[in-house]
Amino acid sequence: MIRALRGRRRRTATATATASAGLALALSCAGVLAAQPAGAAGAPPGLPDANVAARSANPAPAASDQELRHRAVEAARSQATPRNKPKATPFIIGGTQTPISSAPWMVQLSYYDSATDEGYFCGGTLVAPNKVLTAAHCVAGLDWTANGAIVAGASGLLDDTSGTVAGVWRQWTHPGFDADTAHSDIAVLTLDRPLRQQWERLTQSNDTASYKAGTSATVYGWGLTSGADGSDLSATLRKATLPMVADSTCDSAMRTVLGEDDFLEGSMFCAGTPASGTDEGTQSPCNGDSGGPVIVGGRVVGIVSWGVAGCTAKGAYPVFTKVAPYVWAAQPRIDDTDLSYDGKADLLGRTPSGGLFEQDSKGTSLTTRSYLGSGWETSSWALQADLDRDFYQDLIVRDSVDGKLYRDAYDAAAGEFAWKQITSVWGGYKSYAVPGDMTGDARPDLVAVDADGSTYLYPGKGDGEFYGKVKVVDKSWKGVKLFGHGDLTGDGKADLLVRNSSGVLYLYRGTQVEHTPWAARIQARTGWNFSSYVANGDVTGDGVADVMARDSGGTLWLYPGTNKASSDLFGARKSLGTGFNQYNLLF
């Protein structure tokens, strides 16, 4: 059957699956406002010169940097030795050395369990400051929070000083992953801190051009450089440029080599040329390269998945996970940002007297509210969105004193949150939304509608500011309410919800095309005359965007997303509690 391509230190039984107990966190929502210097640059005149203290605390580190370095060294010393099975995971044979500067998003995944002396090594791709895309077989059955380490910014292995280390906060493996067939071989690790290296984008869900036979693709890794049993991982990062192979060609070749049909069209692809039977004349990833990326046109189109034992069997190809069909599942795990760092969107409420309160999501309920401070009465509109993709949720607020937009965002240089004015967007629109990436560049974009119903798209720069507005609707959305955050339809693209003055809710599916950012509208619901809407993303933690709505009686309802682009857009609603009329602003 399919052999896991991660390297192993010992030949004893593989690590057994253990339920992750998570970390013992000291992340309380309660807190007071952390004062900033009076008159801080960019501070809104009406809102407090302060930020929420609970947001300024990073998640507790998974382990000390010293321990993370130790894990990395021990895992790198592991021998990626093929076991006596017909298939093995890949490493780059016949590639060339390349500096990390040519692939700054390439990271080392190191797993070492000191209790069992088991070590594994895989590659991965930094796809957001705190997110790593890798293969499911590198993650499944292992407790990465307890035993994992990530090294970024280093070309070499066995170096306990270069690069940057991080621990693992959460791990997600595609629920359809099958270790025997390598189906759905994709996973995402959430790190315990943001990394400052450049990150890479996933391909789009409708990408077909990248997989066309003959297209040049580049694969990276530190895996074995010889198919001989007992060889070591590469001491430095290597790459190989391989041509894409037609599915029919790969399927036929692998049937011949393996004597069975293990290539799954639609979820896998091959790249390269048929192996020669020896190291000489073969160019292929191999053991230790598992989880590393396949890059085409500056996007991740594949993940190193599996190959034949020894990686050089005559006529065989290396096999990769095809990313495009899995964007819908992986992208929500990459985009998640929330106030409590658990992957579930949280709620903020402001009372008429200006008191700010936080209630964190527990999935289908909310925690008891925590008081965050006063002085927020001049915020006439607000929402949560990570505009600069830095791991921390921004608060975007319109101040009624000067009518301008501001964001409460983390300042990495100062090590604290600070107010920054958003100078590129007018503060006088009637409704705003930040659905996510609407233009295909992996940066969050803003949508706004003015008094006459004209609607504009502001493409995000990825730093909290926006490029010039693009008119996408001409005077036909008068009186509408815009909201939505994330993918509502299961295609990996951010969508927009529009409620008209008659209470009809429409779904506008994202296209990620700047001048035509939505497909034809779909009527999703009628009678949506709620007093307030909150769309912060995935409230339940299932990877599907949700919506919260408050009725006239003060009950807050959760409308869980279903990924269905129809009137069944939401499942049966669930009450999140009563008494929410005490707030005159929810976000």
Topology:
Elements: E1 7-8, E2 33-35, E3 50-52, H1 53-56, H2 65-76, E4 87-88, E5 96-97, E6 106-113, E7 118-128, E8 131-134, H3 144-147, E9 148-152, E10 164-166, E11 168-173, E12 187-191, E13 201-202, E14 216-221, E15 238-245, H4 247-258, E16 268-271, E17 293-296, E18 299-308, E19 319-322, H5 327-335, E20 347-350, E21 356-359, E22 370-373, E23 379-385, E24 394-399, E25 405-411, E26 416-422, E27 431-436, E28 445-449, E29 455-458, E30 470-473, E31 481-483, E32 496-499, E33 505-508, E34 522-525, E35 532-537, E36 546-550, E37 556-559, E38 574-577, E39 585-586
Number of strands: 39
**Residues in β-strands, percent:** 25-35%
Structural class: mainly beta
Give the C-alpha Rg.
25 Å
Kindly report the average pLDDT value: 85
**What would you call the shape?**
globular
Largest sheet: 8 strands, antiparallel
Helix-residue proportion? under 10%
End-to-end Cα distance, whole Å, is 50 Å
pLDDT < 50 stretches: 1-40, 79-92, 226-230
Number of helices: 5
Q: What does this entry look like structurally?
A:
The chain is mainly β and 587 residues long. Helix content is 7%, strand content 32%. Strands 1, 6, 7, 8, 9, 10, 11 and 12 form an eight-stranded antiparallel β-sheet that branches. A hairpin with a 5-residue loop joins strand 28 and strand 29. The longest helix is centred in the N-terminal third of the chain and has 12 residues, at 65-76. It is globular and about 70 Å long. The termini are far apart. The model is unreliable at 1-40, 79-92 and 226-230 (pLDDT under 50).
